Request: fold
Amino acid sequence: MTHQHPTYDQLAALPAYIEQPVPMAFEDINGHLNVRHYIGIASEGLDESLVDCGIPQTWPLTDGHAVFSAEHHCTYISELRTGSQMSARVRLVGRSERAAHALVYLLDDTSKEVSFVMEEIFLHIDLETRKTAPWPSEVAAKLDARIAEHETITLDMPTHGCLALR
Reply:
């Protein structure tokens, strides 16, 4: 099954997260971003986008809550070359009582191409029990608001169909 992804110009209209050049330290022998760094960078972009939803990166230390990744589906579309400027664009797709579903796109802002898309299911964790727990009500409300906002985006941003909220 082939997915038609949004274009660079369509995605560039969304808020940018984790804007930075591809560091030389992340380069592989082919002169581009090593495969092991795509998920890390996309994950950092997702984390940055969740701050406005009441999920600060210090959440584990300040509130005893955390977000854990449960599942990923990754698609590599075009290479990110060392030194190229990159950014992440995030769309929240939905949430359940204890989980959320997101699409994270990495853009090559130098060549103006979509480079990578990561679809992710992430879980709310109570760090005292180290188990999933219902989202705190204020976070759930902010996630719902962001999901509703993202539902108004008229871009066709297909999911892969292999991940689902439970």
In short: The domain at 8-151 is CATH 3.10.129.10 (Thiol Ester Dehydrase; Chain A). The mean pLDDT is 92. The chain is about 25% helix and 35% strand.
